[in-house]
Write a structure and sequence with these properties.
By secondary structure, this protein is an alpha/beta fold. It has helices spanning about 15-30, 45-50, 55-65, 75-80, 90-100, 125, 165-180, 195-205, 220-230, 245-255, 295-305, 310-325, 340-350; strands at about 1-10, 35-40, 70-75, 105-110, 130-135, 145-150, 155, 185-190, 215-220, 240, 265-270, 275. It folds into two domains: about 1-105 and about 260-350, Isopropylmalate Dehydrogenase; about 130-255, Isopropylmalate Dehydrogenase (3-Layer(aba) Sandwich), CATH 3.40.718.10. The radius of gyration is 20 Å and the shape is globular. The protein starts with a strand and ends with a helix. Magnesium ion binds near residues 247 and 251.
Length: about 350
């Protein structure tokens, strides 16, 4: 059987890290006896340049037909600081999430010994960090009503959630927790926000269900969580949260391991799944063959786990660990004797 994968390299370093991850995917497919059928599509600034649309219909069709989507990065500086830009690369990303119904964004954060020194946080605090953020991805303030007054002097964004939206991601997080340390922390702002109170009430009820009785369920206000993530990150196992809080705390959490270049993510929903590194398009590094491909390679490992190709996924993770263990890494991790993007990709393929 062949897995149909739609590949969206996107902008900046996206195409370079995607190229390495596809090399790794092909080697893993050969070694572990499965087939992949790859199909490329446009998204982001490159899509705007070529079609005027950050997510052309053709790309949507390709993604709908696929078993999974593998995405590089989206974003270009020419749009970043222009508040008047009507079309933005990021719209492509938001639209693909919404269109494919990818309501849960899963971002694992763990630390690697060789990176302890790179982390801005003291080693004793980050040793053993291993948690996963379940971020709601298709609701809340990102997709609520928004607008500007006619005179341009006021603007608004609204956040709305339904019980159904909260329920489905909560079950994913709780089910995942049963296979981990059985700890779920809901992050919200229930002391201020009505939507957070709905989250709290909904999750409180689900937590009482008998199949979840072994789970240690807690909740924390987001401002406190932002602090606790730095002060005592090992206390967390699964963090469950809404869209915007999740966006912010996952960026915060990404500095714990010492390099953003190592963190993969999965966005899942009703049937479809998309995998992407959590870093952005890093335009300053584009075309220089210096970007760290590991986050995208680990995103491929998450994709293979999604397909239940666990042996292949494990081999990829092990190869990445080995590269880190001997410091065969790009310059974001080690300035001295830094390897290029392609060298790291080749080494990992060889190891597999
Ligand atoms: C992310 C990004 C996106 C988000 C942007 C690029 C729209 O920051 O995936 O976390 O805010 O969701
Ligand atoms: Mg973000």
């Amino acid at each position: 059987m062949a897995y149909k994968i739609t590949v969206l390299p996107g902008d900046g370093i996206g195409p370079e890290v995607i190229a390495q991850s596809l090399k790794v995917l092909k080697v893993a497919a050969e070694k572990y006896n499965f087939e992949v059928e790859l199909n490329e599509g446009l998204i982001g600034a490159v899509a705007i340049d070529q079609t005027g649309n950050p997510l052309p219909d053709e790309t949507i069709e390709k993604c709908k037909k696929a078993d999974a989507v593998l995405l590089g990065a989206v974003g270009h500086p020419k749009y970043d600081n222009d508040p008047h830009a009507k079309i933005r690369p990021e719209q492509g990303l938001l639209k693909i999430r919404k269109t494919l119904g990818l309501y849960a964004n899963i971002r694992p954060v763990s630390t690697y010994e060789i990176l302890y020194d790179k982390s801005p946080i003291k080693t004793e605090r980050i040793k053993g960090v291993d948690f996963v953020v379940y971020r709601e991805l298709t609701g809340g303030i990102y997709f609520g009503k928004k607008g500007k007054s006619a005179d341009g002097k006021s603007a608004f964004d609204t956040s709305e959630y339904t019980v159904e939206e909260i329920d489905r991601i909560t079950r994913l997080a709780f089910d995942a927790s049963l296979k981990r340390k059985k700890k779920v922390c809901l992050v919200d702002k229930a002391n201020v926000l009505e939507t957070s109170r709905l989250w709290r009430a909904t999750v409180d009820e689900i937590a009482k269900e008998p199949q979840y009785s072994e789970i240690e369920y807690t909740s924390m206000f987001v401002d406190n969580a932002a602090m606790q993530l730095i002060q005592w990150p090992t206390q967390f196992d699964i963090i469950l949260t809404e869209n915007m809080f999740g966006d912010i705390i996952t960026d915060e959490a990404s500095v714990i391991p010492g390099s953003m270049g190592l963190l993969p993510s999965a966005s899942v929903g009703a049937g479809k799944a998309m995998f992407e590194p959590i870093h952005g398009s890093y335009p300053q590094a584009a075309g220089k063959n210096i970007a760290n491909p590991m986050a995208t390679i680990l995103s491929v490992a998450m994709m293979l786990e999604h397909f239940n190709e666990d042996a292949a996924a494990k081999a990829i993770r092990k190869a990445v660990d080995s590269a880190l263990a001997i410091t065969f890494v790009t310059e974001d991790i080690s300035k001295e004797n830094a390897k290029s993007t392609t060298e790291v990709g080749d080494w990992i393929c060889e190891k597999i």
